[in-house]
Amino acid sequence: MTASETVLASLEAGVLRLTLNRPDKLNSFNEEMHLALRAQIAFAHGSPEVRAVLLTGAGRGFCAGQDLGDRDPRKGGAAPDLGHTLETFYNPTLRLIRSLEKPIVCAVNGVAAGAGANIALACDIVLAAQSAKFIQAFAKIGLVPDAGGSWSLARILGEPRAKALAMTAEPLSAEKAADWGLIWKAVADEALMSEAEALARSLAAGPTLGLGLTKRLIQAAAQNSLDEHLDMERDLQREAGRSADYAEGVTAFLEKRKPEFKGK
Fold first, then answer.
1. pLDDT (tens digit, 9 = 90+) per residue, 104-155?
2. How far is CA 44 from CA 1, 6, 99, 236, 252, in A?
3. Residue 207 and residue 234: Cα distance in Å, rounded?
4. What pTM was computed for the model?
């Protein structure tokens, strides 16, 4: 694993735990943190020993989005090319997160604003501390939602709520986010990490090949017709049915014991 002070990484019991680590800046992204997070997600793609990922933030916030400290218009110069920032840094990481056929759990431990909120929403299962808030902060500085935010908000919440959140930049509490179906659940602040770690360990010990195929199916559902999706289910179920995990799961069920899945 590539070492970086901006993204702490540890691997235990099949869970790659990643901690955004710029707490003095509310874990806002600079170039080093962008590249470090991308390197870790790429590592998860290529490493059989990684069976699940747990993403969280250090300190009192999850992620405040992009660090604007080096983009002060008062310093003069040409206007920044934010499209280049997205294409070079955010978009490759978002694509890696969505295409990783292993579970990604996100534990939102505090404010998740701008791109920080949308990176969280790109993960598979999101738990948030009750004190956490999700803020589409882009409207406050004249920008549009990025890091997949306009895509995920519209698909999860529908146009009315997506537009209101994006246009008003009104903070959304963790509990309301859970009530609206934007995240999996809100939990007591003091219980967040223990619950998230237990969930990640449980997923890592599960039939991760089948979980990865499930992720692929659910993510494809929005653009597939019913006929296309039935065909996709057939094909992926055929693949899952030929796996060692399926044989182990059925054998363990018949033998009334706990299965030992290998992700194969």
1. 999 999 999 999 999 999 999 999 999 999 999 999 999 999 999 999 999 9
2. 9, 18, 11, 22, 28
3. 18
4. 0.94
Q: How many H helices and E strands in the chain?
A: 11, 10
Domain count, the chain: 2
Helix intervals (H) in 100-158: 115-122, 149-157
The whole domain housing 41 covers 7-204
Same domain? For 100 and 218 the reply is: no
Contact 157, 181 (CB under 8 A): yes
**Which residues touch 197 (CB under 8 Å, ≥6 apart)?**
15, 17, 54
Are 105 and 125 contacting, i.e. CB atoms less than 8 angstroms apart? Answer: yes
Tell whether 245 is covered by a domain: yes
Neighbours of 179 (CB within 10 A): 12
